[in-house]
Amino acid sequence: MTGELSPIDKAKFVAARRAADFVEDGMRVGLGTGSTAAWLVRCLGEMVRQDGLKFKGVPTSTRTAELARDVGIEVISLDEARWLDLTIDGADEFDGDLNLIKGGGGALLQEKIVATASDRMVVIADIGKQVETLGAFPLPVEVIPFGWQTTQALIEETLISMDVLGRDTTLRMNGEAPFVTDEGNYILDLHLHRIGNARQLALVLNQMPGVVENGLFIDICDTVVLGFGDGRVELRDINEGTIEHDRLDFVESENLFTDLSD
Ligand SMILES: O=C[C@H](O)[C@H](O)[C@H](O)COP(=O)(O)O
């Protein structure tokens, strides 16, 4: 064990550990991207190795694919799977209707394709991701590199015409160079502060030439598994409301605490 986990990592871990119980033998499961999803992948890897769980995972990024293979999960492509029983992924924000902002790690495109191709999407999150109104987290928009500054200007003009509060947009960087997604595209982060009509904004953004996809996940998530630093978990379901409170022992598996890096 590398040391005591921070409360936020404990919260991520218990959410991921609880959500891993949704995975059953024979399922095809979308595996999300990010630090919370990495906990999930480690938990599932342990269930494969120790309990003989048999399922196929469809990763949403090269990072997740690498980690999944490392921990012993059988990885297949979305085209091989065609349709998935379940996707479990993290989020940057979720609201009371379980609408999401995703893409803080730049994987929103594959994540949205995979989640949309699933019977059920379960989001794993710590309480810090819960918001009343989406938008405090900058909204990632994946754009084609060709003419990206023109696309950026078009987005900014559209935000003005929609009377959106924040209109500042920035190109995501990776050091001195633009950040490049797994699909070879760029990310524009939209600093909106508050998104009044997320459904409308998602539709408008996706109609613009040059925009590949945006990080608003509307009506896609079915369940949020919320983790707390003291080991509590809470399940919120879009149809059934809050359906479960539980407490998990986050020291149940010490080897999961090593190699936290994502
Ligand atoms: O592109 C990245 C994904 O949408 C992540 O699921 C999201 O950014 C949340 O990541 P984390 O669990 O690290 O907060």
Describe the 3D structure:
By secondary structure, the chain is α/β, with parallel strands linked by helices. The chain has two domains: 7-129 and 221-251, Rossmann fold, CATH 3.40.50; 139-212, 2-Layer Sandwich (Alpha-Beta Plaits), CATH 3.30.70. It is built from seven helices and 17 strands. The protein has helices at residues 7-20, 35-51, 62-70, 78-81, 108-116, 148-161, 198-206; strands spanning 28-31, 56-59, 74-75, 86-89, 93-94, 100-101, 121-126, 139-143, 168-171, 173-174, 177-178, 186-191, 211-214, 216-217, 223-227, 232-237, 241-247. The strands form four sheets. The protein has an eight-stranded mixed β-sheet with strand order 3-2-1-4-7-15-16-17, sandwiched between helices. A four-stranded antiparallel β-sheet has the order 9-12-8-13. The chain has a three-stranded antiparallel β-sheet with strand order 5-6-14, with helices on one face. Helix 1 (7-20) packs across helix 2 (35-51) and helix 2 (35-51) runs parallel beside helix 3 (62-70). The radius of gyration is 18 Å and the shape is globular. The two termini are 17 Å apart. The structure holds ribose-5-phosphate. Ribose-5-phosphate (R5P) is lined by residues 32-37, 89-92, 102-108, 111.
